[in-house]
């Protein structure tokens, strides 16, 4: 019997197959030899660890199949690793970048103005209006439009707009955290609460979970191999909030971005629809810095009606009770889209402490502005 066959036999197999004495003793010898070899090898690795052993990369690179990285992968990983291990520039005054992704005029500017009031120098506003030039009702938004391009729902142009916003916002070295918001988003807390929540932690709030169902991994294409394996494919809400290092990673990435641009789009050859804005960042960060993201988004959206679009609140829906309900949620919730509908609920942990998950919420109809304005100082007390 060859050594590798012996290796494959578990203890149970050995008991079940009685072997002649002579062979058993020969086997003993082989076992001792193997054991000796293993201990020498272990000692050797301990004394002479391979070069990469102490590198932090070990913590986030998937361990499994040892594959020769492509030149592009190696280059990406070295850049990401460097970005992640470089402490953020200590700026005199940390600011939060509010990046609005909207087709045109923002209906809640006056509400946001109330939110920003008295906090000058701690925030910066950027507006990407993809369809028409917005009319601003608040002076805080005037002159904050960035160069914009057309955005088609579900297509890579959505991700392009997000990257455009990040690139503009990164130009300001004081911006330490970057929040993506839509025209239908509203704040759930007062400015100080939100500021301390985002600046006071080292993680990014990127939603990311494994969904084996039709709205998850069914959208994966093998054309993404070898860089993106199906087991790494993730799903999550588009509405992220990221720290500076992660914002840099997003605009520095070309390799994974291109994979999603080419192979995650609506109406693919095999009849599948993939939406890059729901998969690209959840997958990228799951692969590159899984412990650096919260796995939930700080922007609440209600999918509980199970429709193609989330629940949108009318003026009548907007009550103190509704807002209090949303702000008191402290568990993140995911459900798979397969027939099993597996629900995962996890406490929202902020620096290890359970806290409310959400700072912003969508989708609100423009007509709800007056209710929101009236309730604002009341519901944002907590
Ligand atoms: C963030 O990371 C830095 C460096 O790793 C660490 O010194 C600091 O305590 C962390 N802050 C929080 C709030 O975890
Ligand atoms: C997010 O999920 C990944 C698994 O995909 C896990 O490794 C990581 O620890 C999670 N992040 C946090 C902050 O719990
Ligand atoms: C608030 O939450 C309670 C308890 O979950 C629920 O019964 C109630 O209908 C909610 N109210 C609104 C306005 O969502
Ligand atoms: C906030 O609104 C609730 C519900 O309308 C009311 O009961 C409460 O007294 C209000 N609080 C303040 C401080 O106005």
Give the mean pLDDT: 85
CATH class of the domain at 71-184 and 191-297: Alpha Beta
Number of helices: 13
The secondary-structure element order is HHHHHEHEHEEHEEHHHEEHEEEEEH
Structural class: alpha/beta
The rounded distance between the terminal residues' Cα atoms is 72 Å
Share of residues in helices: 25-40%
How large, in whole angstroms, is the Cα Rg? 26 Å
Tell me the strand order in the biggest sheet. Answer: 2-1-3-6
Q: Which regions have little confidence, pLDDT < 50, spanning 5+ residues?
A: 1-25, 30-34, 40-58
CATH fold topology of the domain at 71-184 and 191-297: Spore Coat Polysaccharide Biosynthesis Protein SpsA, Chain A
**CATH architectural label of the domain at 71-184 and 191-297:** Alpha-Beta Complex
* Strand composition percent: 5-15%
Largest sheet: 4 strands, mixed
- By DSSP, the count of extended strands is 13
Structure description:
By secondary structure, this protein is an alpha/beta fold. The chain has a domain at 71-184 and 191-297: Spore Coat Polysaccharide Biosynthesis Protein SpsA, Chain A (Alpha-Beta Complex). It has helices spanning 3-8, 11-16, 21-47, 57-60, 71-85, 109-116, 156-170, 191-199, 244-252, 255-263, 276-288, 320-327, 369-379, and strands at residues 95-102, 123-129, 175-182, 186-187, 204-207, 241-243, 293-295, 299-300, 331-335, 343-347, 349-350, 353-354, 360-361. Strands 2-1-3-6 form a 4-stranded mixed beta sheet, sandwiched between helices. A hairpin with a 7-residue loop joins strand 9 (331-335) and strand 10. The model is unreliable at 1-25, 30-34 and 40-58 (pLDDT under 50). The structure holds 2-acetamido-2-deoxy-beta-D-glucopyranose (NAG) (4 copies).
């Amino acid at each position: 019997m060859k050594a590798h066959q012996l290796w494959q036999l578990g203890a149970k197999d050995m008991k079940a197959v009685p072997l002649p004495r002579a062979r058993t003793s020969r086997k003993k010898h082989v076992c001792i030899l193997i054991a000796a070899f293993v201990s020498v090898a272990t000692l050797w690795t301990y004394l002479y660890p391979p070069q990469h052993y102490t590198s932090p990369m070990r913590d986030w690179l998937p361990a499994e199949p040892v594959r020769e990285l492509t030149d592009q992968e190696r280059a990406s990983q070295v850049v990401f690793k460097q970005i992640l291990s470089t402490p953020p520039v200590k700026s005199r005054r940390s600011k939060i970048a509010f990046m609005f992704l909207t087709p045109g005029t923002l209906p809640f500017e006056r509400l946001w103005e109330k939110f920003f009031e008295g906090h000058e120098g701690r925030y910066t506003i950027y507006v990407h209006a993809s369809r028409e030039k917005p009319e601003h009702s608040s002076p805080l938004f005037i002159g904050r439009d960035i160069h914009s391009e057309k955005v088609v729902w579900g297509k890579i142009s959505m991700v392009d707009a997000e990257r455009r916003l990040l690139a503009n916002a990164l130009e300001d070295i004081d911006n330490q955290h970057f929040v993506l918001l839509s025209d239908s988003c509203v704040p759930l807390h007062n400015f100080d609460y939100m500021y301390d929540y985002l600046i006071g932690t080292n993680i990014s709030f990127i939603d990311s979970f494994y969904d084996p169902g039709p709205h998850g991994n069914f959208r994966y294409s093998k054309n993404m191999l070898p860089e993106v394996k199906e087991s790494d494919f993730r799903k999550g809400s588009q509405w992220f909030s990221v720290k500076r290092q992660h914002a840099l990673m997003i605009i520095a990435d070309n390799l994974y971005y291109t994979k999603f641009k080419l192979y995650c789009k609506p109406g693919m050859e095999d009849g599948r629809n993939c939406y890059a804005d729901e998969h690209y960042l959840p997958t990228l960060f799951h692969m590159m810095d899984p412990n650096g993201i919260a796995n939930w988004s700080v922007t609440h959206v209600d999918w509980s009606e199970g429709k193609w679009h989330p629940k949108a609140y009318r003026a009548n829906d907007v009550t103190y009770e509704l807002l209090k309900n949303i702000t008191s949620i402290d568990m993140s919730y995911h459900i798979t889209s397969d027939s099993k509908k597996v629900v995962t609920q996890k406490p929202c942990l902020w620096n290890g402490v359970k806290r409310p998950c959400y700072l912003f919420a969508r989708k609100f109809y423009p007509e709800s502005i007056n209710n929101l304005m009236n309730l604002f100082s009341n519901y944002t007390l907590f």
